[in-house]
Amino acid sequence: MYRTQLPLLTEVKTIKEWEQSWFTVRQKFVGYITDPEIWVGLLLVVLKIALIYIVARLLTKIAQRAVEQLIITRDKNPLKLDTRRTKTIGKLMGNILTYVVNFIMILMILGQFNINLGPLLAGAGVVGLAIGFGAQSLVKDVITGFFIIFEDQFAVGDVVQIGTFKGTVEEIGLRITRVRSWTGEIYIIPNGTITQVTNFSIHNSLAVIDVPVSRESDVEKVRKLLEDTIKKGYEENSDLVKEPQVLGVQTVGGSEITLRVTAECKPNTSSSVTRKLNDKIRKVLQEQQIDMP
């Protein structure tokens, strides 16, 4: 009988210990939630977090307004920079400022909960370093794309040559640039691989036309015909910005003499101007029966 009562007494003792422990926990909890200092401290933390959030939002608004004002000033620049490019720069700078302010805001809020930010920042640094090593080409593309846009190296619609690729720029992004060749091919070029660019759309072009005639031809007569012909071509062609010039004899060969004509024209129009002037010169020389090799 004594052995049968021993487990029962042990169970009763365990229940009493559990009830005593629960009573102690409940008393501590009630004391915690009824402690005025706890509520005052919590209220101060909430107020600090709210203040940090409001200040962060104000800083973001002020930074965005400053960027917008910078873009407006840039648009009024007498150089007349590309509007699309300035908007892209403004959006990019606004996003960067927003990310920075939000990151600092999150760190300050975590600090209000007495979270040790040292290990957190160290871990974030290690993760960022790992991502940087794993995505070096992507980071290089983005950084190069930013400077292409910021430095106004070329714009959409410009005719450029990037390495062996030549064509019209269709799109400039932070990661890639799209170039369409005159035969229709689309070149997608990562910005990080762009090391040298030739832009044909910034300044006027120069059309160079060499006119070969027979060695027995009257050079002065040919020269006068060329001057009259290119003068008419200048009046009819709106792509020419100046009246073309006959520079004179360029080369003297065994059976021919070559005269050179130059014509300053609008950007990217030298090929069409050359073809039109060549056609006019050919017709005049045939009409005057001047022999061409």
TrEMBL record:
Pfam families, per the entry: MS_channel_1st (PF21088), MS_channel_2nd (PF00924), MS_channel_3rd (PF21082)
Domain Mechanosensitive ion channel MscS intervals: 138-201
Coiled coil: none
InterPro entries reported in the protein's UniProt record: LSM_dom_sf, MS_channel_1st, MS_channel_C, MscS_beta-dom_sf, MscS_channel_2nd, MscS_channel_C_sf, MscS_channel_TM-2, YbiO_bact
Broad class of where this protein is predominantly found: membrane
Membrane topology: Multi-pass membrane protein
Keywords from the UniProt entry: Cell membrane, Membrane, Transmembrane, Transmembrane helix
Locations listed in the record: Cell membrane
Domain Mechanosensitive ion channel MscS C-terminal: 208-292
Membrane-crossing residue ranges in chain numbering: 38-56, 92-111, 117-139
Mechanosensitive ion channel transmembrane helices 2/3 domain ranges (all copies): 95-136
Similarity-based family: Belongs to the MscS (TC 1.A.23) family.
Protein name per UniProt: Mechanosensitive ion channel family protein
Organism: Paenibacillus filicis
Highest classification ranks of the organism: Bacteria, Bacillati, Bacillota, Bacilli, Bacillales
